[in-house]
UniProtKB/TrEMBL annotation:
GO molecular function: thioredoxin peroxidase activity
Lineage start: Bacteria, Bacillati, Cyanobacteriota, Cyanophyceae, Nostocales
Organism annotation: Dolichospermum compactum NIES-806
Name used for this protein in its record: Glutathione-dependent peroxiredoxin
Superkingdom per UniProt: Bacteria
InterPro entries named in the record: PRX5-like (IPR037944), Redoxin (IPR013740), Thioredoxin-like_sf (IPR036249), Thioredoxin_domain (IPR013766)
PANTHER family: PEROXIREDOXIN, PEROXIREDOXIN-5, MITOCHONDRIAL
Length: 190
């Protein structure tokens, strides 16, 4: 097993608006690579178990959206919300949430989550394979800091939300770590 110090190379299947298509659904598929997302940028990525789920919808995504300008003031170029959901689900969730600042990135196959060592089985609640809840600060593809929720395991009975929240990550960027923040732990790929 090797410690992950850089984001893994993955191709994400996304949907983008294309007015040349016309009609009620003017979107087309676009492959986006990790290189395109992270190269030459400071990115905060937070991952969550699923679009439309309670904590993700009521707190996790909305707070990152709300604090977007404060993140930018700390040199963050982009905030990304990743979930093991397909592009259609992520689009509809973003639309319902009114997300304007946070880029919703579909990890439909779970490949990125798996290569990060963050893919867990949530079959006990009918989800199947999903991302564990975490956040990370990434500089030019290099992982600077990870905020991994405690209790990482398959079929976990709870959904902890203590350290991957927007306020904890923002405090870290400002150099004032919150007491709940955990020490950096790099994920492992096995």
């Amino acid at each position: 097993m090797t410690a992950i110090t850089h984001v893994p190379n993955v191709v994400f299947k996304t949907r983008v608006r294309d007015e040349s298509i016309g009609g009620p659904n003017p979107y087309t598929w676009k492959d986006v690579t990790t290189q395109e997302i992270f190269a030459g940028k400071k990115v905060v990525l937070f991952a969550l178990p699923g679009a439309f789920t309670p904590t993700c919808s009521s707190t996790h995504l909305p707070r990152y959206e709300e604090l977007f300008e404060e993140f930018k003031a700390q040199g963050v170029d982009q905030i990304i919300c990743l979930s093991v959901n397909d592009a259609f689900v992520m689009f509809q969730w973003g639309k319902q949430q009114g997300a304007k600042n946070v880029f919703l990135l579909p990890d439909g196959s779970g490949e990125f989550s798996r290569k990060m060592g963050m893919l867990v089985d949530k079959s006990n609640i009918g989800f199947g394979m999903r991302s564990w809840r975490y956040a990370m600060v990434v500089n030019n593809g290099e992982i600077e800091k990870m905020f991994i929720e405690p209790g990482f395991e398959d079929n976990c009975g709870s959904d902890p939300f203590e350290v991957s929240d927007a306020d904890t990550v923002l405090a870290y960027l400002k150099g004032v770590e919150r007491p709940a923040a955990i020490a950096p732990r790099l994920a492992f790929v096995g």
